[in-house]
Amino acid sequence: MENAKKENRFFDRARETIDWEERESDLNIRFLKTFEHAFCHSKAYQEMYDSAGIALPDIKGLEDLEKLPVLRMEDLVERQKKDVPFGGFETVDHDKIRRIYINPGLIWQPGEWEFLDTSWAEALCGIGFDAGDRILNTFNYHMWPIAFMLDSSVKMIGATVIPTGVGNTLMQVKIMQLLKVNGFMGTPSFIMTLIQRAEGMGLDLKRDLSLETALVGAEMLSESLRSRIEDKLKMTVRQVYGTAFLGCIGYECIHVTGLHVPDNVIVEVVDPNTGKHVQPGATGEIVVTNFNPTYPMIRMATGDLSMLTRESCACGRTGPMLKKILGRIDQATKVTGTFVHPWQADEVISRYPEVFKYQVVITREEYEDVMTFIVELVEDTTRSEMIRGRIERDIKDILAVKGAVQIVPRGTIPDLHKKIEDKRTWE
Ligand SMILES: [Zn+2]
């Protein structure tokens, strides 16, 4: 059974393994269709392109993408405030909107009448889910869209979803046990919480639970946490990367070579200052165009840094791949004059399998910056003092800045936390 789960699966094998040139010409057609639709039906895009001096015939295909301005979340929010609720990015009448989703910060998002986006379904198959699976969806069904998108995508692959949302850990463990749930979707922290709850209830994880595959996202998954969960449950844990407005942007297949970009998004990696493509293989900001017929996102900046590659993968997918997400452009922060990037902090912590979760907090005492790594350990240990000392030494070595380590009880750092929290005030 375990080996059967490691089979290489596809949502649409023909599309996912299509040769590069055919893919390009197919993407080109879909891009032009989306661009024209947005240009003709969305007030916001019309205004944006007008003021950039771009007319419809100027854009002849993907080769002209770089001519279009990059859309930043701040711009979208600004337009939504002036033109409540959707800012004029919508391309359909309001009676063709099924739900209004609410993203953190009261950012509105129209849910299409019929959910047609296949990017998450492609990811579900890619990570190893199959028709007939019973999948626990522990993402939050209140207000935010992600749980609904995944819910609809589970249907697309012919599997069954159990819509549990977050919380109720005791009940969720019981549900997994009684329904022989074999799939999980949620954050890495939450699956770990469920595992610990199940252990606390005296369950034998391998005998009493039937979990085989987990889709995790919305938080960083360290390799140590991945192998810890995989070992405890003899299951496969795979990451997805995406956003509410863009859909799935990348997912790991069974071979874990990087993040495969789904067939129905266009991913560019650009210089955040100019919006122009970086050299192949170089680091830049991820900018995405999707084909959403209700709320198309054209060149939307994610704020995340990565590298795009065309390396081949043993699974046979021929599309582009993102190397791992290297951090947020807006989270790099200067501490006593030196830039500290989230991925550098990850590099320090990745050496410690004992660490469950961490956050970097920057404060100011008198006239000096103080950097503190707040750290939760997987379990209480008498070695915590030694671990603390070692991490402090590695911070100095890797970040070239002095930092303190504070070990806190499990549950102190909230889910979906910022990796680097800058608490300095400048008056
Ligand atoms: Zn692959």
List the helices and strands and how they pair.
Blueprint: H1 2-5, H2 13-16, H3 20-41, H4 43-51, H5 73-82, E1 97-103, E2 107-112, H6 119-127, E3 134-137, H7 146-156, E4 160-163, H8 169-178, E5 183-186, H9 188-200, H10 205-208, E6 213-216, H11 223-233, E7 236-243, E8 247-251, E9 259-260, E10 265-270, E11 284-290, E12 300-306, E13 308-309, E14 321-322, E15 327-328, E16 333-335, E17 338-340, H12 342-349, E18 355-365, E19 368-377, H13 384-399, E20 404-408, E21 420-422
Parallel strand pairs: 3-4, 3-5, 5-6, 6-7, 18-21, 19-20
Antiparallel strand pairs: 1-2, 7-8, 9-14, 10-11, 11-12, 12-15, 13-14, 16-17, 18-19
The structure holds zinc ion.
Put the structure in a nutshell.
Helix content is 31%, strand content 25%.
Plain-language structure description:
Helix 6 packs across helix 7. This protein has helices at residues 2-5, 13-16, 20-41, 43-51, 73-82, 119-127, 146-156, 169-178, 188-200, 205-208, 223-233, 342-349, 384-399; strands at residues 97-103, 107-112, 134-137, 160-163, 183-186, 213-216, 236-243, 247-251, 259-260, 265-270, 284-290, 300-306, 308-309, 321-322, 327-328, 333-335, 338-340, 355-365, 368-377, 404-408, 420-422. A hairpin with a 3-residue loop joins strand 7 and strand 8 (247-251). It has 427 residues and is an alpha/beta fold. The longest helix is centred in the first third of the chain and has 22 residues, at 20-41. It has a six-stranded mixed β-sheet with strand order 4-3-5-6-7-8, sandwiched between helices. The structure holds zinc ion (ZN).
